[in-house]
Design goal:
alpha/beta, Rossmann fold, seven-stranded mixed β-sheet, five-stranded mixed β-sheet, binds glutamic acid
Length: 410
């Protein structure tokens, strides 16, 4: 199953439950616009490398298209198309006034110099500049991109169209970024997990948590989960993982990572692989790395009672069914990782108003929205006797279908 087939699978199930008519289903099942571009880049050794880039706008019924830009070797048309559709549902569920989009360049940023990365980002921005805009489509960071990438994108766009901070979100705070955006996805994951444990009648404080992935999302989820009283027993990154049944010493771990650029080989824990981490005996498992890590191959060996999808699409549809059958609660990606785009919305609002909010206001508003969306998903799942993913998709698809209908699309 390709990433797009997986994302579409959950959509069609929701369309069945909501009894969407064929026209609506057809409109919501495919992208509104798919732009594929070539991105030629002068490499440091003088050669030219031609990368493939994409910006996919899935649905704009609820507002301007919104979603991140991914730099990754696997970021092809199918993957970006899947992620664009997930953004439509995520934005509708968390109730920000955006449609869904995603972009990507198929490249390996870890093997590129900063200069090569900057030239790639500027050229890619120029190539997609015709379809983005403050009121049209607003990119943001995703895997392989960060605030620096957004600064280059804003600058490249500004060279053509004049100063336009609202063209991207997730910018450095000095350039009009929002306080709290950097940690927002991780913070949202923790707020959602706390609310979920409350609804499930278990304790977050003292819960043993394993987190796969130590990028922006995994790093902040780790720090904030520990601050909120959970015991983070395992973390991992591309180099491997580390485990301590009594809870990891995160300060010592951060020092180790600064020196060796990976969490693996940490003296304060036992070594384990990324695959082992998923199968650990723990209370809450948070896959925060990439898609498709919990599949039919390992779903029957997952021991956590709750799986929180901090990454996009980490549990594939077959594994989802296996976990459901085993009564393991899956908190779906379109809910769990919606904190990032929520604070992107606040950033966009601040840019339009030319007024910066304080961190406390950002965090309070994020908290309010994450709790409201989590409760709405639990309420619907309880009243309709569905899984949390089904409830989340039902709410989101219903909202987008309704917006499309009253606009007169269908
Ligand atoms: N890339 C993030 C996501 O998958 C954030 C998107 C945004 O802020 O627009 O939700």
């Amino acid at each position: 199953m390709t990433p797009f087939e997986a994302a579409t699978f959950f959509f069609h199930k929701a369309a069945d439950r909501l009894r969407l008519n064929d026209h609506r289903r057809e409109i919501l099942a495919s992208s509104y616009r798919e732009l594929a571009v070539q991105v030629p880049v002068r490499m440091d050794d003088g050669s030219i490398q031609v990368f493939r880039g994409y910006r996919i706008q899935h649905n704009g019924a609820r507002g301007p298209y919104k979603g991140g830009i991914r730099y990754h070797p696997s970021a092809d048309l199918d993957e970006v198309r899947a992620l664009a559709a997930l953004m439509t549902w995520k934005n509708a569920l968390i109730d920000v006034p955006f449609g869904g989009a995603k972009g990507g360049v198929q490249c390996d940023p870890r093997r590129m110099s900063s200069g090569e990365n900057q030239r790639l980002s500027r050229r890619f921005t120029a190539m997609i500049s015709y379809v983005i805009g403050v009121n049209r489509d607003i990119p943001a960071p995703d895997m392989g991109t960060n605030a620096q990438t957004m600064a280059w994108m804003m600058d490249a766009y500004g060279q053509k169209y004049g100063y336009t901070p609202g063209i991207v979100t997730g910018k450095p705070v000095e350039l009009g970024g929002s306080p709290g955006r950097e940690e927002a996805t991780g913070r949202g994951v923790v707020i959602c997990t706390q609310e979920a444990t409350k609804r499930l009648g278990t304790d977050f404080a003292g819960a043993r948590i394993a987190i796969q992935g130590f990028g922006n999302v995994g790093y902040w989820a780790t720090q904030l989960a520990a601050q909120a009283g959970a015991s983070v027993v395992a973390v991992s990154d591309v180099g491997g993982g580390t485990y301590n049944s009594g809870g990891l010493d995160l300060e010592a771990l951060s020092r180790h990572r600064l020196e060796s650029e990976t969490v693996a080989e940490f003296a304060g824990g036992e070594k384990l692989t990324n695959e082992d981490l998923l199968e650990l005996d723990c209370d809450i498992l948070i896959p925060a790395a990439i898609q498709d890590v919990i599949t039919s191959r390992n779903a029957d060996r997952i021991k956590a009672k709750i799986v929180v999808e901090a990454a996009n699409g980490p549990v594939n549809p077959v594994a989802d069914q296996i976990l459901n059958d085993r009564n393991i609660v899956v908190v779906p990606d379109i809910l769990a990782n919606a904190g990032g785009v929520t604070v992107s919305y606040f950033e966009w609002v601040q840019n339009i108003q030319q007024f910066q909010w304080e961190l406390q206001q950002v965090n309070d508003e994020l908290h309010k929205r994450m709790v409201a969306a989590t409760d709405a998903v639990f309420d619907r799942s309880e009243s309709e006797k569905t899984t949390l993913r089904e409830a989340a998709f039902d709410i989101a698809v219903d909202r987008v279908a309704h917006a499309a209908e009253i606009r007169g699309y269908v």
